[in-house]
Please model this.
Amino acid sequence: MTIVSDTQQRRFRRDAAAAYIMATYGFPCSKAWLAKLASVGGGPVFRKAGRVPIYSQSDLDAWAQARLSEPFRASGIPASAFTES
Model:
């Protein structure tokens, strides 16, 4: 396991964070949506540099992974329900 220190992590401003989520995980994400979630809760952890919100790649990855469901093989039927004969 490789441990990456906090100073070595890639960091994103809000617009780049939204683009990273869309490119990496394939679900819709916008700068405005991240701003709303930062206000009401439920979004990824972020830090501030002055007035600018900054998201670390590991925090974005953890948040996106938590939003994804388990794999499906058919609508409404989890892949784990299928067993190989």
Helices lie at 14-25, 31-40, 57-67.
